[in-house]
Amino acid sequence: MKKVISSALIALVGWFLTAPTFGQGQGISLNKIIAKVDNYYVLQSDLEETVQSYVGQNQTAPPKCQLLESLVINKMMLAKAEIDSVMVEEKLVDSELDQRMAYMVQQFGSDKNIVEAYGKSLEMLKSELRQQVKDQKIVQKMQQKITTDMKVTPREVRKFFDAIPKDSLPYMPAEVEVGQVVRFAKPTKEQKEALRQRLLDYKERVLKGEDFAKLAKENSEDVGSAPSGGDLGFAKRGAMVAPFEGAALKLKPNEISDVVESDFGLHLIQLLETRGAEYHARHILLRPDYNRLDITGPTRYLDSLKNLIEIDTLAFEKAAHDFSDDKTTADAGGLLRDAQTGSSRLAMDGTMEYAMFQMLDTMQVGKLSAPLPYRTEDGKSAVRLLYFKSKVPPHTADFKADFEKLQSIVLTNKKNHAIDEWFRKSVADVYITVDPEFQSCRIFGTTQGSAASLGSGN
Question: Where is each PpiC domain found (predicted)?
Answer without folding.
Answer: 173-273, 276-387
